[in-house]
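Hello forum,

I keep getting stuck at the same step: I have a sequence, I want structure tokens, and every attempt I make locally crashes halfway through. Rather than fight my setup again tonight, could one of you with a working pipeline run this one for me? It's a single chain of 227 residues.
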Amino acid sequence: MAGTGVIDDYVTGLDRALRGPRSLRLDMVAEARDGLLDTAEAMQDAGLGREEAERAAVEEFGPIREIAPGYQDRLGVASARRLAATLFVGVPLTTLMWSMIWRVFPTAGTVYESTPGWFVPVARGLDMLQLFIGLIGGVALLVLGRGLRRVRRPRLFIRSLALFVWGTFPVVAVLSGALVVGSGRSFGFGDYPPGMAASLVSYAAWTVQLYIAARCLNATRRTSAVA
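Reply #2:
Ran it on my machine without issues. Output:
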């Protein structure tokens, strides 16, 4: 039986109060709506009118300001898991991709001889940093999975992970730019298709990571209570 009025208004308000992955949010709201409808129908079978039954079901379910935080916590964890998976898989693969690019780079046998003395240490430092970021992603995946019950403040953990991504991005960008300049190549590797493709993949990966990190921050920010 399709719900009308009170329940529809309630689930609409709940949806507006939540922030996070759209698919999961819609599933959660739909689940809440189905539960409310089942409760309302049971109360209606017990003799209440439809509108009265819906109001009673909503009252029993609880005010949005009390229900929304629990739903929001789940959405925050879901966003953080996506971010952790992106770091754990994407960052090491990007590092491996660039390692292969430099190995097959035109004049690969002489390119290091013509670069500044700082080039190799910076390249190794960047590789280590990116592998560290990937490791952080792997640890975060474990924590946000089976280890979540042991985390006393999941919101703080999620925000820390997101801020870590935003904080390391400028460092990675500066080191990567320095290597491109030090190699004497253009930033887009426009005259070298494999390098250009690798650059596009890197830019896309950075964009995705920053976007998901921003979503994590948004999903875990504190808001005023909803009526």
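The CA atoms of residues 126 and 171 lie 9 Å apart. If your local run keeps crashing, start a new thread with the error log.
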